[in-house]
Amino acid sequence: MTFNEGLQIDQDRVSSGGGPGMGGGIALGGGALGIIALIATLLLGGDPGSILGQFTGADSQQQGTAQTPDHCKTGADANKYVDCRVVLTVQSLDAVWGTELPKQTRTAYVEPKVRLFSGVINTGCGRASSAVGPFYCPADQTAYFDVSFFQELKDRFGSTGGPLAQEYVVAHEFGHHIQNLLGDLNRAQRDPQGPESGAVRTELQADCYAGVWAYWADKLPAPGSNTPFLEKLTRDNIRDALSAASAVGDDHIQKSSGARVNPEAWTHGSSEQRQKWFLAGYQTGQVSSCDTYSARDLDNPPTLKL
Fold it and tell me: Which run of H or of E encompasses 114?
């Protein structure tokens, strides 16, 4: 268990299925399946835009939906059901960033929308399928999750599948929303791939922001309560988060797809980098620890103490 059981879940915070009409924009933080398809295309010399079109402009007539999580009522439900875990993680992220973002950056926190879905969904960034994995769309300021991704992360890519591994994924997508609020998100589009690219630095910063959340989530009390959202995190909990960060490293995904490791095709960073930047945020709880754009050596975050 990671969530304190008596916490109440806000059933209005997260919606399921449906979505706004198609529009422009780039979705950030696509999961392992989408990354594999992109890497394979790049290795074969193809046009990555053609693959993105499969995810954001698919001609599918199916509009998948997920059940509205009516069974999600307390922290005990979040410890039992993965969809409830996503919802309560969202509430925890709102509480942490609502307090720490204005305090640390003088930027007001605006809650992103969150949707659970399965199959395909129309978003402000176009039509997306579950194959892309969890993602954040800046055009509609919405984070999208198909909870089946968490099982895929465990079965195909070796994550432990523990609760904090799943919560890390949610926190990473919220990290992109924080970047959007701070005006940094567009840096990924200026320099879209390569080991030192803006895309990699953007993804590593989102990992670091996930670590910032984890630092505060077992310390700050939930709104209207004296109890933090998370129970005191243990080393095993942190190992769960690190296993998820490692599973979605570009080098690990390239190896899993049978390709050679090619840093020039990276968009998210190596497994080791993703783990280290998560830890940099977790050890300090400070947004200032996550300045990947100024980092001279992405393999060694300046604030990380091992």
Answer: strand 113-116
